Automatic annotation (TrEMBL):
Keywords from the named record: Cell cycle, Cell division, Membrane, Transmembrane, Transmembrane helix
The keyword Lyase is assigned to this record: no
Family label: Belongs to the YggT family.
Record protein name field: Cell division protein
Keyword flag Ribonucleoprotein: no
Domain of life: Bacteria
Single Gene Ontology BP annotation: cell division
Species per Swiss-Prot/TrEMBL record: Saccharibacillus endophyticus
Pfam annotation, one family: CCB3_YggT
InterPro entries per record: CCB3/YggT
Stretches that traverse the bilayer: 6-28, 71-92
Length: 96
């Protein structure tokens, strides 16, 4: 059981890094016209938009143009990763 928890613990940063890169790529795609409408853009949008939309509801664009909500979303994602890793550490210590 402990071995499985350790493997999951080691996998978590990789999964969070992959999702962070998906968000970054999706955000950068907004700078290039019509890229979000491509097949890759649509797929990345289905993965990224549900998470980003949470922050867009609460953080309006600055000056109606500059959307800083993705930056906040990336910071929150890092905090969530740290929290999950901490909980796994506590769980592994409790079981071991």
């Amino acid at each position: 059981m402990v071995g499985l928890l350790i493997q999951i613990y080691q996998l978590i940063p990789t999964l969070f890094q992959i999702y962070s890169w998906i968000l970054i790529i999706y955000i950068l795609m907004s700078w290039v016209p019509n890229v979000r409408e491509s097949q890759v853009g649509v797929i990345l949008g289905k993965i990224a938009e549900p998470y980003l939309s949470i922050f867009r509801r609460f953080i309006p664009p600055i000056g109606g143009m500059l959307d800083i909500s993705p930056i906040v979303a990336l910071f929150v994602l890092q905090f969530v990763q740290g929290g999950i890793l901490y909980l796994f550490q506590l769980l592994i210590r409790a079981i071991a």
